[in-house]
Structure formats: C-alpha cells, structure tokens
Design a protein that fits this description.
The chain has about 350 residues and is α/β, with parallel strands linked by helices. It is built from ten helices and ten strands. It has helices at about 5-20, 95-100, 120-125, 125-165, 185-195, 200-210, 265-275, 295-300, 315-320, 335, and strands at about 45-50, 65, 180-185, 215-225, 245-250, 255, 260, 280-285, 305-310, 325-330. The strands form three sheets. A six-stranded parallel β-sheet has the order 5-4-3-8-9-10, with helices on both faces. It has a two-stranded antiparallel sheet with strand order 1-2. β6 and β7 (about 260) form a beta hairpin. The longest helix is centred in the middle third of the chain and has 42 residues, at about 125-165. It is rod-shaped and about 190 Å long.
Length: about 350
C-alpha cells in the first residue's frame, strides 16, 4: 500500500471513531443512525473495514481497503525414500550368481525359479567341469582317429581307381584295357605240336594273346630233367620260353616202373590261377586238359572271363563247354608258328 493512502485511511478511521463515540464532545448520540461497522471477525479475510456514517452538512465517506492475501506456496515434495536394504544371509547366492532369470514376458505368469544348489555342489563345480572336459577330449580324439582312417581308406581307393582309369592304349586316352593273365601247360601244348610236326613260337603266342590287353603275368609250367648235370636253359620244355617274358615254373620229371615219365602241374597251375583271379579280367589257359574243368568254373563264378587256347584234337570237350571263349591254335598257325 502507498504511504499517502495509508495515512489517509488512518485519519479517516480516527475521525470516524471520534464522531460515533457516545461520549464524543459536542455530539448527540443517535443510535438509530448508527450502523455498526463490520468487525474484524465478520470481515472477509484480508480486508480492513471501517464504519460508514452520514455527517450533518457533509458527505458520506466509506473506505474499504482490501489487502491481497498471500498465495501459499505448495510444499516441496519430500525426496523418495530409499528402499530398505536386505541383509544377505551367509552361504546363499543371489539370482545373478545362480544364473536364474525371474523376468517373465508380459501377460504370462513368471515361472518359479529353481532352488539354489547347495554349497557343497558349488564347491565341486571345477572338478565336474574338468571331468567333462576330459570326456569331451577323449571323444574328439577317438573321432579324429576314425576320420583319419576313413581318409586313408578313401586315398587308397582313389589311388586304385586312378590307376584303373589310367590304363589304356599308351599315349592315348579311352577306356582301360582288360587285364589278362596267361598260364601255359607246356607238356600238353608241345606234345600236341610234335604230333602235328610243327613248332610253336611262344613269344608270338604271348603277343597274340595279349594284344589290346594289359598283360599282368605270363607263367609257363615246364618239367625238367632230374639230372642235375643238364643245364636248365637248354632243356626241351624250358628253352622255348626263355627271354620271351614268361615266368617259368619248373618241376622234376617222375619216372615210373613202366618207363613212362610225367610231371604233374595241375595243382600248381590251379593255385596260381585262383590266387591271381581277383586282379585279372581275363584268364587265358593254354591247355586242353579236361582236369582243369572245375578250375574254369570257379574262376568264371568270380566274374572273370576264361578263354581256353589249345589244339582242337587235344582239347577236352568238357573244358571247351565251360570256357567263355575257345581259341584253336591250329586255326591260327600263321600267327603262332615258329618261322
């Protein structure tokens, strides 16, 4: 409030009090004209009120001063209280240490967390991990050994397939040539040639039977004299095969009481043929002896092709019947006869 207004209000209030007092000087008390002023209790809050009175010969004056009531400031919000701290019991794990997730998706009920493991089991965890690591290492080592064995097997198979596919005409490509093994029953063929009065060149026989084929082995089963003084290379059944690429298998002749001489190679020849048949595609048997019939059947049962090569007059009919192919030496003398 301004100082002038405040002083004016104070003067008017003092004057009004003097005029209305029943004992005021030179004034008659007129109760009917008196209007009680509002008491401080009846006045509104923050308002100062004075009485009003009409003076004789003057103008009514009324002063109402309204003091603005101070606006109360809202009380400051108290700081949030810190949540009470729980005292951790010794020997128990927190949720983070136990690795248990207790947060459930919205709209679902949280799953009940498993009970924490006892302290004894937690103390044994390093030993458990060590045992599990040892088991895993042993299993990995075993699998590595198995894989290494498979790798070696595949490498061997690849080498064999490459060797098989690489066979063919030298300097040319194309499919591999069939592998052939030649087995000569020397006495059977040479006696048949002597009866015809001809001589066979076994070097040409080897070339004739191995053409367009891969020669694996050629074996000649020849009897020899029981006289150690006779040179081996000059003997009748050995000399035609020397230096012609044959493997010569010899056996001493047996002399019987009637003066006959014989050297039986049936068992030796049969064993060699059966042993090599797994590595051959074709077996060429140069003999007409019917004792080899069962041998031919066994070899053919393995999927190996068997051809019989002999003179027609000295060849058993049973042997020709079980052979896959028969080659008559007499019909091919132009290619096989010695010159």
């Amino acid at each position: 409030m301004e100082p002038e207004l405040e002083s004016f209000v104070q003067e008017e209030a003092a004057r009004a009090a003097a005029d209305t007092h029943p004992r005021g000087p030179g004034r008659a008390y007129q109760p009917d004209r008196e209007k009680p002023a509002a008491t401080a209790a009846e006045a509104p809050s923050g308002m100062a009120t004075t009485g009003r009175r009409r003076r004789w010969g003057g103008r009514p004056k009324a002063v109402e001063v309204a003091a603005p009531a101070p606006t109360p400031e809202p009380p400051a919000a108290p700081p949030p209280a810190a949540p009470p701290r729980r005292r951790r019991r010794p020997g128990r794990q927190t949720e983070a240490q136990a690795g248990v997730a207790r947060v459930a998706p919205a709209g679902t009920k949280a799953a009940e967390a498993p009970a924490p493991a006892p302290a004894g089991e937690l103390a044994d965890l390093p030993g458990l991990f060590a045992r599990q690591g040892a088991v895993v290492e042993a299993y990995a080592a075993e699998q590595l050994r198995v894989l290494q064995g498979m790798h070696r097997s595949l490498g061997s198979l690849e080498a064999r397939l490459g060797s098989a596919l690489g066979r063919g005409v030298p300097g040319q490509g194309g499919p591999p040539l069939p592998r052939v093994g030649i087995f000569v029953d020397v006495p059977n063929v040479m006696y048949a040639a002597e009866r015809r009065g001809i001589s066979i060149d076994f070097g040409r026989v080897l070339s004739f039977l191995s053409r367009n084929r891969e020669l694996v082995r050629a074996s000649a089963y020849a009897p020899i004299s029981d006289d150690p003084q006779v040179p081996l290379a000059g003997q009748k059944f050995v000399q035609p095969f020397v230096d012609h690429g044959y493997r010569i298998v010899t056996k001493p002749l047996k002399r019987f009481a009637d003066g006959s001489i014989k050297a039986n190679f049936d068992v030796d020849l049969a064993i060699d043929v059966l042993t090599m048949s797994d590595r051959l595609d074709v077996v060429s048997l140069v003999s007409g002896d019917g004792d080899f019939r069962r041998l031919v059947e066994l070899v053919a049962s393995k999927g190996v092709r068997v051809e019989v090569v002999a003179f027609a007059e000295s060849t058993s009919a049973d042997l020709r019947a079980v052979a896959d192919e028969y080659v008559d030496i007499g019909a091919n003398l132009a290619d096989l006869q010695a010159r």
